[in-house]
Amino acid sequence: MSLSYASRNPSSSLNIMRQCCASLKTNQITKFELDLNALRARPDAVDFFLDCLLHLNEPNSDVELFHTILSLRHLLLLRYLTLPADLPTLVRDFLVHLLQTRSDLVPYNIQAIIETSTLLFKRSWLSPPTPPTPPTPTHTYKNVQICPSIPSPSHLFQTLQSSLSNPQIDGIRILNYLNNLLEVVSNQKGQDSLKMTVQWHKDVRLNFESYAEKCYDIAMLGLSLTPQKQPPTNTLYIKSVFQTLSTTLNWEYGGGNHFRISTPSQLIKPSPKVKSYVLNFEFIDTCFKCYEGAQEEGVRKEIREVIIALCSVNGKIFSNDIERTNYAEFLIQRLLSFVRTSTSDSIEDWAVTFLRVCKNFKINLLKQVPHFQEFMTCLTEFTLSTFNSITSLVVNSSGDLDAVEDYQNRTYDLLLECIVIISSESFFLEPATQATLKEEFGRVYLNCVENRIKICKAVEGKCVREEVELDELGERLDEEELAEQINAISTAGRLNLLPSLACLNNELNRSLGNLGGLFESGVGEVGEEAAGILEEVRVLILFMGWLVTDEGGGETPIIPEAIVESCATPQAQQISATITQIVTSLSNLSSYQSTKISSSSASPIYSPLIAQQLMWFFSRFCRVYLMPNASLYDGLEQNILYKENFGLEANSQGLIDMCTKSAVLYITSWPGEVDVVEKTVKMLEGLCGGRIRAGLARSEGWRCLCNVFWFVGAMSIHTNVTPNPQELNAMGLTPAMVEGFRRLNYERRGDVASVLACGSGGMPDENNKTIMNKTLMLVEGVLTKLATVISDPNSNNTHIEAVDLCSLCVSLYSGICRSPFVGIVDSAAEDSAEAYVLTKFITPSLPKLAALMPIYGPVDNSIKTGLLTALTSYAELYISFLNPVESTALYNAASEMIKGYSAIGIGSSAKKSDEEDQHEDVLQAIKLLTHLGTKDFIDVVDNSGGATPTVDVTEVLFYGINHLLPLVSDLLEYPKIAHHFFDLVGYIVEAYPEKLNSLPPDFYESLVGSLLWGMSSIDILVGKSCLRAVEEMTKEHVKNNTLNGILTQKPDTLKLCVQRLLTDVVMAPSVVFDRIDVTGGALLVLIAADLNFFTTYVRDMISKAGIVQEQKQQLLAAFEQLVNLETIQAGIQGKGIQGRNARVAFKKTFELFVKHVHSFLVVV
Amino acid sequence: MSDDNEYAIENTDAGASLEIPCEAGSVKKGGYMNIKGRPCKVLSISVSKTGKHGHAKCNFETVDIFNGKKIMDMVPSTHGTTVPIVNKTEWEIANIDDEDFLSLFDEGGEQKDDVKLPTYPDDLAKKIKEAWNDGENTVMVTVQAAMGMEEIVDFKIIQE
């Protein structure tokens, strides 16, 4: 290639460059940078550096060459459009030429050359060089013959291929060139320096895909040449070959970003065009052979990357299942021999290959693979050996978890994921394969139980030995991690249920024997050994809990299918008996421990964590296994699990008695152990569902709980109620129990109130009616006493004791208000009068509760939050049951409470805290309004009751928002608050746009202001809520002129919406495509509302935009195309399907508009 | 429901005690508690335990409400603690004598002569004195009382 360029005296240019770089040698970095920048700023800078590039070919000029290349890259990309069109092309090709011809280049110059040349190639990819326009001749130009020209991408690949075949040229450079080119084109590298639009990058990438086969050609050629490469260069060469293969294989077709570093489960979908390369057994075999022969870990790592990619191949590249099966079989066969002999540093990669195989081929296909059974055995062995080594490391280091490398833990997790995938789809397998699977994975389960116990014991031993103080957060994280792992392995445990249960039963019997000895020994302190025993029991409870029950959050708890099915097999008798044995053992432990702590609660040997774990277990177990609803299962009534375990009433009373008795003892003996109390209450909640409730009233523990709740409550109301041992004894209580319950946190006392109401509510028998009545009377009694204190002119309302009474009162009401309405639902058919007992009780108290806000809200934040929480829970759970009178009472109370709250809230809540949790009160107030808003919806839908509240719901809602707005505006940066607030505002504006006209003008303005803020929020949900609200508000106005009144006072609000929507949403550099649909909807109605303003504003915006004239014209044209009056008119006025079609059409056009505009405006 | 109420209602007796018992787990952040006889404001609360199977302990980080010193305390969950009854009252300065004792009187005309200028925060006494020496305006002080101690904690100038 020849070029006319302004050559000066080359030796002068070189001298200047050398002088500049000389500062580097003397460490004068700042001087060097200043000099180099001055050179880059010269008017003839490009010519100058070009001169240097062409003539810097003597030894010891590496540094000068490096900075010359970088400077040229900088200048060429910066001035690309103003330079002669073929100048960057010349530099690009000359750099390739240097790569081919100069063997003396140092590595950093090779890299600089490769990166610069590939970037320039990408820049010119879509626009081939145009004839040169000569620059102003400031120097004497002369034609120079420089290097062979590479006029097109095809020529580039041809050049690379021939260079690779040429033994005189270093193949590593060529492979690295291709590798780099792939990275640059896929935007993994150098995207920022090109300063081009998103669309341009996408177009280049799509165009590049047509050369995919060329990339494979070169990479495969590189692979075929490996035998010719002799040591010592062969290691680096092979590494480059596989690096290039890996990048090529991982290319993501269809315009996405290709990935090299990906998630362990990521699959890849190569184009069918490259089938002959990828689905080539000879190629796969070569990869494995190379791996076998490779000595250096870096090379092996690269080959493993290729193998991982091969295991992830998916999609249309396979013509049919037979092809897929054959491919899987070939891969698995090769994999097995390597994994068995893998070294420690490669295990994570092999685990990834296993996971990719499991995810990719699925069990339905894998079962046809002849080596599948071997694959399962290998997976089992791999998992066992990994966990065995983790265990050894922890045990040998005396409980130091840091002794285990992160990659080992990750490997184990990956393998467990494989096991879960296969186990959960095992029903696809033939009986023989299933039997093998059961056996193999059964071993993994048993191994996991054994090793996990060892690890936990060792770790706890270390904690005790070193007196480590555990913090709540750290412990919770550890627990979650452990639970996740046990949950995963339980899937395998259920495959072969009997051995799994038998293992747990044996281990439990052994460790409970040790625990019994420990409890009886009277040891005063928890030493290392004692801690080990306690930990062993705890872990076994966890394993049992996860084995026999599912997490099933939010679902109706049911017995896991695998267990029901196992209990219909010949082993059913043994399985059922073992479950009963284990549950009985744990019941005995709970009874024993709770009885012991009732007399010596401070003894350190009685572990609160064991109590917590037991309550966790029974909470999960009871709600599933005690008297289950047989209609949820097929043939459960014939199942031994139902007949002989705890399905029938006669079999379950014992367990209910134990649970309630333990619960009351745990609560009263350890009121300060928050976690134990919480888990206990949760367990009691579990007993309040379904048919179990009937058994509650018959249990002694439940009666004790009621008695202690009532007695201690009475002590708060009456100064003359004192614990009398005889009287207490008659109630099944002791003075210690009363004292313990008195010490219980008020919030937890509220929980107990909730449980008592839930457990007895709606039950037809007298026993339960009494429990309910006495509980509610007590709660009301506390409020009445507080009212007396408040109305007494001689008493100090805000005295600490009065505040304390108020705290108790609010907690108890809060408990009743959040009492799940299971009782109501269950009894609705039996006794509808009882069904509404709670709403009848709460309604008269609502005005009093609201009146507490202005008195105690400013004194105690928790009272303020508690009052709002109580009303929110009540509204959430009971609003659909309320009749008009009760609804009115709720709306009035809510209005009053929010009014009182807003008056005091500004002082305390508006002070921003670092933690969102500190603003729970604001959140509750927003939620309260949201729940109140649902009533209108419920009543519209359900006309059967004919309930129409006498208070206008919308007035309450707008009134509430008006009061909350000043409080919330400073807190909208908190995601949770912002979500709830904009959900509420969005809903109200959307549901009642006609009401906006009658709002106070300033409030209307603030409301719209908050929508303007929210519509451009980075939070997608917030943005969507606000945009939808703007759309509905404007649509209603366009159709019925609903905002005419308010717009005369605040005429600019809709204009502001247009401005904000265009500048901060539509034209924002980081447009959010997830909400493009709602943005289109909002824009449609805003255009329709005031077309003239829209047109004027758009023209004004474009004229002021800092973009070139050509882009301004493009933008204007795009807007003109978008605003199709016919579509807009039809979208607003069109009825039914016609209107909907028009709106959909506009939204589609709008999406195209945004994509188009951003393709030439947004530069990355 | 009220008709069936078996509990008679009595007035609360605010009493004259200086503190009331409270469970460690019930003390709130931002509230008060006594540590070694000193009334303190709670800055933060954390729960910890020694080993997984240990009993919970509440760790309090507090500040003495009279001298501003930070005090840490650890209370096992099985133990209780006490909460001081803290009262704040407003008084007008009638005089400040040479020994820094103040003569104060409240809205009802009640007099108080046993409070000295505060030693904490460092510059509060100086500011009160300066405000008082200005002469023209009324200076009101807030007297905080807890656990038998009294101290001026704030002041304000009422423009006349």
Automatic annotation (TrEMBL), chain A:
A GO term, aspect molecular function: nuclear export signal receptor activity
Subcellular location: Cytoplasm; Nucleus
Principal localisation: cytoplasm
This protein's UniProt keywords: Cytoplasm, Nucleus, Protein transport, Transport
GO cellular component: cytoplasm; nuclear pore
InterPro entries in the cross-refs: ARM-like, ARM-type_fold, XPO4/7-like
GO BP, sorted A to Z: protein export from nucleus
Sequence similarity: Belongs to the exportin family.
Name under which the protein is recorded: Exportin-4
The organism's taxonomic lineage, starting at the top: Eukaryota, Sar, Stramenopiles, Ochrophyta, Bolidophyceae
Automatic annotation (TrEMBL), chain B:
Signal peptide: none
Matches recorded under PROSITE patterns: IF5A_HYPUSINE (PS00302)
PTM: eIF-5A seems to be the only eukaryotic protein to have a hypusine residue which is a post-translational modification of a lysine by the addition of a butylamino group.
Pfam families: eIF-5a, IF5A-like_N
GO cellular component: chloroplast
Keywords linked to the UniProt accession: Chloroplast, Hypusine, Plastid, Protein biosynthesis
Chief localization: plastid
GO annotation (BP), single: positive regulation of translational termination
InterPro entries: IF5A-like, IF5A-like_N, IF5A_C, NA-bd_OB-fold, Rib_uL2_dom2, Trans_elong_IF5A_hypusine_site, Translation_prot_SH3-like_sf
Coiled-coil spans in chain: none
Gene3D superfamilies: 2.30.30.30, Nucleic acid-binding proteins (2.40.50.140)
All residue ranges annotated as the Translation initiation factor 5A C-terminal domain in the record: 85-156
Compartments, record wording: Plastid, Chloroplast
Stretches that traverse the bilayer: none
GO molecular function: ribosome binding; RNA binding; translation elongation factor activity
Family label: Belongs to the eIF-5A family.
Function: Translation factor that promotes translation elongation and termination, particularly upon ribosome stalling at specific amino acid sequence contexts. Binds between the exit (E) and peptidyl (P) site of the ribosome and promotes rescue of stalled ribosome: specifically required for efficient translation of polyproline-containing peptides as well as other motifs that stall the ribosome. Acts as ribosome quality control (RQC) cofactor by joining the RQC complex to facilitate peptidyl transfer during CAT tailing step.
Protein known as: Eukaryotic translation initiation factor 5A
